[in-house]
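Section 3.1 - Work completed
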Amino acid sequence: MPDRRQIITLTTDFGEADYYVPAVKGVIRTLCPPAEIIDITHLIPPHDIYTAAFTLLCCYRDFPKQTIHMVVVDPGVGSRRRPILVAAGDYIFIGPDNGVFSYIYDQEVNSHVTHLTSEHYFRQPVSDTFHGRDVFAPVAAAVAKGVEGRMLGDEIDDPVRFNIPRPAAVSPRQIRAAVIHVDRFGNIITNITRAELAGVMSAGPVKVRIGKHETSRLLTHFAEAGQNELFFYFGSAGFLEVAVAKQPAAKLIEARRGMEVIIEF
């Protein structure tokens, strides 16, 4: 298959001050000049696979079908953790087998995972500490040029997945949820969606409690909130979120990822 203008996105914890990102881009463009490289972010907190996984979940479908999503948040680089390629739905994902694609496995009914072992496609010599440049970038370029997953290694059925917390009913009037992300504004994102609360909310008022703090104020946008008012809303990714207008709610109420959230109705 001839080279074509293929989109390759990059999500990493490399930051913007060092040579890591340009080195990765240089390898991709050298091996596949027509590739269009789009940065999702390079500001994932160091080693934070959970933030990387959530970020990918919220935007991977916003890209055209057949986009290649390369994710390099890889605290286990150089160890026995496997480099993998995931074909899921209409997209390709390339990165370490450390759970960073857990939400993808959850969202896409059919996914095929390949352990990348065909070193012919790697940049040589392969650094022990920079697989983003030497393994994942050249594999992304090869896939963009039409190389199929079966040429890159063997399919596996045991990719690493982290436990995705699920909302659970703990009584007829109470649901236990959890904080799964805090964004850069300090907004608190939970794991419960508008669809999961649709029936509950049609029956009457809802109260959201995190730690010692609670709110029953459901708003549609930030400008509706009063000064210092804690409120909840449904964010653009579809999850129930808790916020304080123009202030970091997570800092104010000492919320963090994994914290219990109680929805009462």
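Second construct:
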Amino acid sequence: MNRRSAMSTLIGAVGSAALGHALRAQESHAFVGEIKAIAFDAFVIFDPRPIEKRVTEIVPDKSIEFANLWRARQFEYCWLRTAAGRYVDFWQVTDDALRYTANSLKVVLNISKQDDLMDAFRSLPLWPDVAAGLGLLRQRGIRLALLSNFTSAMLDANLKATGLREFFEPHLTTDRVQSYKPSAQAYKMGQDAFGLQKSAIAFAASAAWDAAGAKWFGYPTVWVNRGGNPTEELDARPDVVAGNLSGLVDFVGRS
């Protein structure tokens, strides 16, 4: 199987997928107008935990260390390449980070095992609350798009596997601007694609750093914090912190 054909990424904010009522932990006092569109980070929709399970199967003796280093190096490479203006797509970044991790931890991975780890990103499952949440948002006439570091091929493969393609407008992948989040160029794709003011576009983040980046850009922001992680100590806080997608649906309903 060709490793350069689709999918990738681990992410911060991986944890409990339990359903229940969203807990609104924080709200900004900034005015939020009528929300007409939502830009989603991919991991608000797709559950990345099976990637860690695959790591455990292939690298059982060092699975935690391996998964953590792969994830950290993956995002460090994104940010370094953005700062240096040396963009390559996220699939390549993830592959590079995988090879670095194996070399660093002295783990021997043959081509088959490398492909198996990379292919874990090709068919990520949905979080359990996603289908119902997207249905409610569509009933309200809210426009939806994925604004992600993932390549279009990665997003297409996951949407095809989950049957959600019909919900989303064309992908806002960072390949369009060759600059990874939290670059302002990445977030601006949402404003350009929807043709709306920032105040009319909610950003749904799965990681605290992404929520901060979206707020810096100026979007009303909901952090879907499924793992119960702490907010970043940065001068930007999400408008709402919620345990699942219900918090986003409620936020849009109040706008």
